[in-house]
Specification:
By secondary structure, the chain is mostly beta strands. The protein contains four helices and twelve strands. The longest helix has 5 residues.
């Protein structure tokens, strides 16, 4: 996979009969979807560039007209495929406390005293918040809620995260 491309949406189905695509995307990303000019679709391990003609929203979905899709059949061919955008363009829409999962994986995790606790191996989520999966030096995994109170520092430049290691979090 191309490391410079980040998944931003999925083609769920066609909409109407003029080749519009119904996209699913993460809540809160409307401005980013609305600003799209071109995206890449991944099908059969190949990326194809798609040019966006128009974007509108219907319920919780984006209805997008791509220059390359003229009919329902054109959209059907890509149903279920992910859409990608260059990492730099995705980063433009991140809030100051938002991070790309790909940037967090592999980061070292320290406590507030500077002791290395492990490294981030995955990001998960529950109904309340995202969870950092931290593997310690013994190979044991610990789930850390990714909230400011427990994770006060994310330092991308130095590849490190500092957590408030409250009792029982990472022993």
């Amino acid at each position: 996979m191309n490391n410079n491309l980040i998944s931003i949406a999925k083609i769920l189905n066609f909409h109407g009969i003029k080749g519009e695509a119904k996209l699913g995307f993460s809540k809160g990303r409307e401005k980013q979807i609305e600003s799209l000019k071109k995206v890449f679709v991944l099908k059969d391990k190949n990326y194809k560039e798609l040019n966006v003609i128009s974007v509108r929203f219907h319920k919780h979905f984006a209805i997008v007209k791509f220059d390359e899709f003229k009919t329902v059949n054109d959209v059907e061919e890509y149903k279920g495929c992910d859409l990608y955008l260059e990492k730099e363009k995705v980063e433009e829409y991140l809030e100051s406390d938002e991070f790309l999962i790909s940037d967090l994986i592999g980061m070292d995790v320290f406590d507030e005293d500077g002791c290395l606790l492990g490294s981030i191996i995955a990001i998960g989520e529950n109904l309340a918040n995202n969870l950092l999966s931290v593997k310690d030096s013994n190979g044991k995994e610990h789930l850390v809620p990714f909230v400011k109170e427990l994770v006060p520092v994310v330092d991308l430049k130095n590849n490190r995260v500092v957590i408030n290691n409250i009792e029982g979090l990472i022993s």
